[in-house]
Every structure is written in C-alpha cells, then in structure tokens.
Design brief:
- The structure holds two protein chains of two kinds.
- Chain A has no helices and eleven strands.
- In chain A, strands 2, 4, 5, 6, 9, 10 and 11 form a seven-stranded mixed beta sheet that branches.
- By secondary structure, chain A is an all-beta fold.
- Chain A has strands spanning 5-7, 10-13, 19-24, 31-37, 44-50, 53-56, 65-68, 75-79, 88-95, 105-106, 110-114.
- By secondary structure, chain B is mainly β.
- Chain B has no helices and nine strands.
- Chain B is globular and about 40 Å long.
- Chains A and B meet through strand 5, strand 9 and strand 10 of A and strand 4 of B.
Amino acid sequence: EAEVAQSPRYKITEKSQAVAFWCDPISGHATLYWYRQILGQGPELLVQFQDESVVDDSQLPKDRFSAERLKGVDSTLKIQPAELGDSAMYLCASSSPGQAKNIQYFGAGTRLSVL
Amino acid sequence: LAKTTQPISMDSYEGQEVNITCSHNNIATNDYITWYQQFPSQGPRFIIQGYKTKVTNEVASLFIPADRKSSTLSLPRVSLSDTAVYYCLVGNTGTASKLTFGTGTRLQVTL
C-alpha cells in the first residue's frame, strides 16, 4: 500500500535555529497538507497545496514558517527561527481530488523538540 | 466549518462493542462525516466515511440519523489494539476541502 513519506522522524534543535521537514505524498495525489499537532490536541492545518499552488495558509505563522511544493510533488516545511512553542508533531497528508471520497492519507510525522 | 463535539475519553473491556457519538449540529448539506483513528506517534488513519443512514466496512460501522446532526462510530468487539484516539470530522470532499480536527475521543481498552 502506498504511503506518505516524511523525514526526519525526529528532530531536536535549539531555539533560534532553522529546521526543515520533508514530505513525499502518495504518487498522483495533487493535494498536500501540512498539519501541526501539539501533544494532547488534534492536528491543526498549517497549509494546503493543490499541485504547486497554495490553497490555504491562513493558519501558517508566516513570520517564521514557510512551505513550498515547487514541482507539485514533494514538499518542504521550514521554520526559521525555531521557538520553544514550536515543539510538536508535524504531519503531512495527501489526497486525490479524483477520488470520490477525497480521503486524506497521513504520514508518520516529524516530532520536533526545540530546546 | 461545522464544529464537532465528542466525549473526551471512553473506557471499554476487550470483546465489547464500543459506540462513540459525535455531535455536529451545523453540518452543511454537502458535508460528509469522516472518522479517523490515531495511535501514539503516528499520523491519523482513515476509518470510515458516510453521508447518511448507515455505512459498514471491515473495521467499523457508522450510523447517521436523518437530520445528520450527529453520528455514531461503532467498533464491534474491540481488542487492546483498538486503544487510540478517534476523531470525528465533517467537511465536503471537494478540491479545497479542509478538515478541522477537534480533541478527539481517547478510547482505552483493557482486559
């Protein structure tokens, strides 16, 4: 079964450093999502791509977060500079609008710890 | 976006049927109801989706009354491995669909 790939699985960084997360969606999925999940809470959508275009980034803290999907396939989420409050799980998901249900498939996530 | 309300936690013994109810009073006409399961340190996993009446797959059943203001996820004969957080979401399945997760229901299954 095809999966959404994310790397790294774990990242420890110091405050004010830059970090980047990578996501490779399921082949053929045009829609890609980045979520942030704080421990004990549900995932919160940060940004949504349709192919290479941003559809929704209303919850993305744009002063420090950036996301790109240059060729409409894999995607990178960057934080610069990282703050203590950024410690969370960062999840990537993809879906295919062509599917009747448009179900989102999630990767295993990247757990970020900011020290 | 329709807001959902679920119990924060539930406990069950292995082998029992578990029913988790979700309220979504302001669901829109073109919204579907979708349930996800999440284990610790993993991403959410799709369980089941429905629009009205009843949907059943190999994992669960989803019951939706005529007014669609609530839905119930039914897990038959749960096992220890069903211990997880279950999220109920409502939204349409269009290209710009957006899922809004709540805090979910934490199900604990014991022997």
